[in-house]
Amino acid sequence: MYFAYQGKRKMNYEVHGEGKPLVILNGLMMSTKSWEPFLEELTRYNQVILVDFLDQGQSERITDIEYSHDIHVDSLHDLLQFLELEKVSIFGVSYGGEVALQFALRYPNMTDKLLLFNTAAKTSYWFTELGNSWASALGDPLRYYLAAIPSVYSPKFFDEHEEWVEAHKEKLVEVFVDPMFIDSMKRLINSSQGYDVSNRLGDITAPTLIVASEYDHVTPYYEQKYLHKHIKNSELVYLPDSGHALLFEHPNLMISLMLGFLLTEHHDYKL
Amino acid sequence: MYFAYQGKRKMNYEVHGEGKPLVILNGLMMSTKSWEPFLEELTRYNQVILVDFLDQGQSERITDIEYSHDIHVDSLHDLLQFLELEKVSIFGVSYGGEVALQFALRYPNMTDKLLLFNTAAKTSYWFTELGNSWASALGDPLRYYLAAIPSVYSPKFFDEHEEWVEAHKEKLVEVFVDPMFIDSMKRLINSSQGYDVSNRLGDITAPTLIVASEYDHVTPYYEQKYLHKHIKNSELVYLPDSGHALLFEHPNLMISLMLGFLLTEHHDYKL
Amino acid sequence: MYFAYQGKRKMNYEVHGEGKPLVILNGLMMSTKSWEPFLEELTRYNQVILVDFLDQGQSERITDIEYSHDIHVDSLHDLLQFLELEKVSIFGVSYGGEVALQFALRYPNMTDKLLLFNTAAKTSYWFTELGNSWASALGDPLRYYLAAIPSVYSPKFFDEHEEWVEAHKEKLVEVFVDPMFIDSMKRLINSSQGYDVSNRLGDITAPTLIVASEYDHVTPYYEQKYLHKHIKNSELVYLPDSGHALLFEHPNLMISLMLGFLLTEHHDYKL
Amino acid sequence: MYFAYQGKRKMNYEVHGEGKPLVILNGLMMSTKSWEPFLEELTRYNQVILVDFLDQGQSERITDIEYSHDIHVDSLHDLLQFLELEKVSIFGVSYGGEVALQFALRYPNMTDKLLLFNTAAKTSYWFTELGNSWASALGDPLRYYLAAIPSVYSPKFFDEHEEWVEAHKEKLVEVFVDPMFIDSMKRLINSSQGYDVSNRLGDITAPTLIVASEYDHVTPYYEQKYLHKHIKNSELVYLPDSGHALLFEHPNLMISLMLGFLLTEHHDYKL
């Protein structure tokens, strides 16, 4: 389905199932398609709204302006109004988690629960250079694969699933050759510049689940410790041995953590 | 409600709600009452069976024989048959997790999912001496409190909740003065001697969630790493900064982890 | 050798070897004797000053007054003046580390380097209760052993060295039956009440080595993280799998960390 | 100074100071020059032998044959014979640690102590791809910098030393433009293919120090845990918050760990 943001920019979204609404925000190289295998589980108790950010997946490219994360926060807000959803829980992973945080800060009354998986509070200097390393490898599909993909996995998972990784590599390299993918990726990477909510986390009021991975090279553990320290109503879960891409390394556990947090009503137990 | 194990030993149990059955097995100093505050959450999607082990809570004391964990495995099995429950998920914490593991090994077909929170695969020499330290402090309620309770919390939680801890202390000391409590506790501690399933974990087939805490002095993290390494179909979650008593330190997260694992159907995703 | 603090209280000390002076401050249940096996290594490049705190080892008992750590800081200072040592490096473990920190704050010009092993910045509420658990077990030697000793080791070391632990136990229980030991221990435990330098760590200027152990139940890891965060010129080393008693679990590594830090001159490398 | 390996290949080495000999083996992008700032400290008690591997630093390029680590083990052995050094301690970092391990396996009688900093037991599939990502970025100096350098630091150090990092970047980019550097780097990366001593670690008899860093993306922590588990006579030290390049992030601590381990004679204490 398409929503026309500002009456013109076509944004791909899908609504599945019924129940309390959960919006899922993709990581950089993901799309609504990434969630297909999990829809059976995710929609058992919730309505699930999948979205491709502008310049991502099947959403429209943005070639006329430079943009920051703001365009995603805005367009998500307008989409939710269009869908007449007054309050939603938001799950975001990595890039998606950063947009989720900014949405929760701008629209606290529309934010039910916040689920931040492998997410940071700002685009640090280090992360800027990591982004630059990806951007500078774009153009040559194998080089881009090598720059961006192995670091997304925990080294152990990568080693133990060589066959799967190699099959996946073939498919990815085909995607990475696409000029449209390349241009979008450059702009999306660029849109993270200047992102910094590190001083505003105290304003987050939504119950928040923060998930960190031991071998997450992209959004290292100390970022999630920082989020947990500054978001009042937050819980921190740490996954030993796993990497940035929980989706692939621990899909059942990822779903399980999501559902559990969504389906639990949080009480101030006086034990 | 009472079930008469072997036609004679009265075992206290409660059945709440409807849905797929979840049996909850207490830690050493817990009882069915410990779960009351959480029943609203726990029964939203599941039927919950609470049980006091024999010699625990409102179940009958066992003063005529020495016993091991076996009596709990047996009596739980007979109770489930009596309740006509063919397959249940079992959550156990600490002592309860140890009984859960043995139940899953003896009755694999009756075990749906296994949730092992702060649990070990055997009563190590170290744990034996820790148990002895508790046993040797029994008799003097304050001494027993000091021996058994502070180590159950993470030091940080304890420090940050001094008022709550002190109020709790008053109540506990009143319990610890009770001769019936003292005698039961001695027998329950004693029943863990010889417990060792460390070489049999490969036989566990149920999807298993293992939860570990950074500052768990009673069942230290390396025990849960061992469980995770040897139980094929298991997931490991690590909770930074928390102690042995998740119930008190992170009740919402505990419920959330339980519900999530129970409500997720585990797939062999071919991603 | 004995030094008469304030002309009257006899304090046991030993001076070994030659070179830059290193003062070694004992943990609660240690004494100058604990260091005998290591003197060959420790004196190869340094002069080593061993000290029994007042009320410890072969130093005089303090039965006429209540005291805090201050008496140790004072008496150490006077001893060093008597020995005409103007500047010393100070190694302290646990209780000894706490005295070392207070010495460094009061006599910064006399403090060369600071080596804090398994040390905390304050006697927290939690630690007070742990101390109370030890104090309340005094009187019955086996009970005291169980209360104080197993928690000093990492569970794994304890399990893997059962024979050694049992032999050690026999010797310790003989010590714990001694009324003089019992009374001293009560006073030493009590002397830690009110200890708190957590707000003054910014004043420490000495190069400081902080060593933490994964399974240190007595002075948990977050205490050393706190020290490291607030002592400007400090380095933090973390020892996986080990417990509070490095002396027994990793003697070679302990000596190695001590010597390395002492023998390295710290530079502000402009690399 | 130059040694002619096999009478022809010129190998750059330096001998500094007197005392028990310590051989220092460089990481991939290091050279004898990297150690200059530390010679004052390192030579205080030891003789230090610095070496540029063939194809590294001021040693001769190897353009006529393909080679593996073996050539370094061989040439190091011949150099030591030439220097009439019968037994040496060997420090190696990363690539240098891997050569050190192989030297210790082939020449146990010539190996005194082994110091393995940020080292792995094999070139895993994951590490192969990481090496490929570096190799594929060679040619464009900025791209190579981005591929290889930021991941060598802990993200936190990188962020907190932006000015230093940027100044360093300028210098590095000038090096990375050099065709001789590029060709050597390709061959050195390639020489790690097939490296695997993971099944032979039980044969290591030298006292071994293993140092790991929390945010070491290049040789992740689980590699050092593996080394520690399988090298009998080893100690494991873990450095929280630091990255692969201890040399830059914690120079004083690095020196301190080296000296301490070298200067301590290891005893089998019967405590």
Automatic annotation (TrEMBL), chains A, B, C, D:
It holds the Pfam family Abhydrolase_1. It comes from Granulicatella balaenopterae. InterPro entries: AB_hydrolase_1, AB_hydrolase_fold, AB_hydrolase_sf. Coiled coil: none annotated. Residues 20-251 form the AB hydrolase-1 domain. This is Pimeloyl-ACP methyl ester carboxylesterase.
